[in-house]
Amino acid sequence: MIPKELLKKVRKIQIHTSRLVEDLFAGEYHSVFKGRGIEFEEVREYQPGDEIRAIDWNVTARTGRPFIKEFVEERELTVMLVVDISSSGSFGTGDKFKKELAAELCALLAFSAIRNNDKVGLILFTDRIEKFIPPKKGKRHVLRVIRELLFFEPKGRGTDLAAALKFLSTVSKRRSVVFVVSDFFAENYERSLQIANRRHDVIALTLSDPREESLPALGFVELLDAETGQRIVVDTASSKVRKAFERLSQKSVKERERFFQSIHVDSIRIRTDEPYFDPLVRFFRQRERRH
């Protein structure tokens, strides 16, 4: 049984993200993810102004009157959420932890998907594959996805993004829209991401916290790597130390973004101290204009 407090948390996320979908986001989602193509629906009589190229000559010959073929968009997609639940997700100095932010982002994307009659699947990973939920449709299915995102207790602490992407290729044979939700504190994943993006439409949602980008001047502070358990004492009163930390952080971000661009993976940076809705909508509008 899930405790009442946790059910309330699921309900709160459901209400919040459902409102965003209803009010604003569904149109952005639909316009960017248009399905795999078009499929034949029916024939109807030709009307002035119709495309000559759409005429069905076989039906026209049989009836003696011109008929045209009508097509509709093949709308159904599969959306895969590949979510990093390693120990670094239990960090956040903004409004929420990174793992809570990931749950809300995935809820918003999942509700947008089912509103458009798309399937949603989930892969949770750390330094191993923790949980796989095959793609399905429906509100009950999405609520299960949200519960797993909020309450699943991982066995691993580290991050093996390459293994998660390889697992994706074994369970998702059809081309899918894949949202990789992670802080990307991982190594040796570049080749696997490149291969995954050839088969799927991969979008990287990079979660970050302001304290991962700069340090406040607080004197001697012990920093803990949540994934390895390594501890280090840093003199944050030193401007040299703070500037070196910022330089390393900025270098890492720029190198990652350059890599994403080089393999044509779209990316969105989401911070724990800022509303996530605006960067998502901005990204989708830019992507729609581009395509």
Textual characterization of the structure:
This protein has 291 residues and is of the alpha/beta class. It folds into 2 domains: 4-32 and 75-290, Rossmann fold (3-Layer(aba) Sandwich); 37-74, no CATH class. Helix content is 43%, strand content 24%. A 6-stranded mixed β-sheet has the order 5-4-3-6-7-10, sandwiched between helices. Strand 3 (78-84), helix 3 (98-115) and strand 4 form a beta-alpha-beta unit. Helix 3 runs antiparallel to helix 4 (139-151). It starts with a helix and ends with a helix.
Beta-strand share of residues: 15-25%
SS class: alpha/beta
List the helices and strands in order.
Answer: HEHEEHEEHHEHEEEHEH
| Arithmetic mean pLDDT | 88
The Cα radius of gyration reads 23 Å
Give the gist of this structure:
This protein has helices at residues 4-32, 57-63, 98-115, 139-151, 161-171, 190-199, 239-262, 277-290; strands at 37-45, 67-74, 78-84, 119-125, 129-136, 177-182, 201-208, 220-224, 231-235, 266-271. The chain has 291 residues and is an alpha/beta fold.
List the helices and strands and how they pair.
Blueprint (H helix, E strand, L loop, with lengths): L3 H29 L4 E9 L11 H7 L3 E8 L3 E7 L13 H18 L3 E7 L3 E8 L2 H13 L9 H11 L5 E6 L7 H10 L1 E8 L11 E5 L6 E5 L3 H24 L3 E6 L5 H14 L1
Parallel strand pairs: 3-4, 3-6, 6-7, 7-10
Antiparallel strand pairs: 1-2, 4-5, 8-9
